[in-house]
Amino acid sequence: MSPAKRLRTRMAETGLVHIMAAHSPLSAILAEQAGFDGLWASGFELSALYGLADMSLISMTQHLDMLRAIAGRTTLPIVADIDTGYGNAINVIHAIDEYARAGASAVVIEDKSFPKVTSLVAGGRQELVRVEEFQGKIEAAIATRQDPDFIVIARTEALIAGLGEAEALHRAQAYAEAGADMILIHSKRKDPSEIVSFSRAWTGSVPLVIVPNAYPDLDAARVKELGNIRMMIYGNYGIRACATAMQEVFRQILADGGVQNVHKDILPVEEIFRLQKMHEVKEAEVRFLR
Ligand code: SPV
Ligand code: MG
């Protein structure tokens, strides 16, 4: 079964899939071993990995290269965050081809104008494209996919842009009519009220996706009660967890003038060997090195 088919099947069987952000093959391996249903090839995480803001500064080639590297090291389906689709509907056609070939099972395309501004930053300039223009991008994505199981998720940033629920519902409905398989609704409020209200008001034919970065109170139990959200994307936890650990350990080493106090807080190198599958390398050495 293809990863895209597995993702669709898992969603149908469990009613809610849990997708963890990955910014590297190692983070993807850790997410797979933790038991997540899939991976989020997050634009925010990869931008942060490069030390850059999530403002369309990372190229499609950079994102694709990382996605390919991730796909080569896990079996999990990958949901690719392709931001605005790198331009207009023509760029989307090219992007869908490339991302499918690189190993993505799904894409999320957002209705912001290019270059995008990261969603959660305070006072971000959020400009959306016209509804008809974005419908064209969704239609282009659907027309381009070769595998009917490949999932096209339309993301509306209407709430992020402060345009209100009526506009968000109007856009989501228009994108569903254009053929989107799912609608991602995002909010930067610190509480889940906007998302809960949108979910209750949504009467569209396709299910919803959320990214509960800003409103952590909306956990899986509450999401299941809402009934029409089928995918939760954990959007920036991998990179924040790494940065937390590195910040602490790096400071401690300099403060202590050595590494004597950090070993107890970090993985032993043997665990990294396990993640690198060193045992397979050793077996191959025995077998083939003459
Ligand atoms: C990402 O992880 O790149 C996202 C989620 O798009 S957010 O940063 O919350 O917009
Ligand atoms: Mg993103």
UniProtKB/TrEMBL annotation:
Keywords: Hydrolase, Pyruvate
InterPro entries: ICL/PEPM (IPR039556), Pyrv/PenolPyrv_kinase-like_dom (IPR015813), Pyrv_kinase-like_dom_sf (IPR040442)
Annotated SUPFAM superfamilies: Phosphoenolpyruvate/pyruvate domain (SSF51621)
Keyword Hydrolase among record annotations: yes
Residues in coiled coil: none
GO molecular function, one term: hydrolase activity
Domain of life (superkingdom): Bacteria
Annotated family: Belongs to the isocitrate lyase/PEP mutase superfamily. PEP mutase family.
Protein's UniProt name: Phosphonopyruvate hydrolase
Protein's organism: Bradyrhizobium elkanii
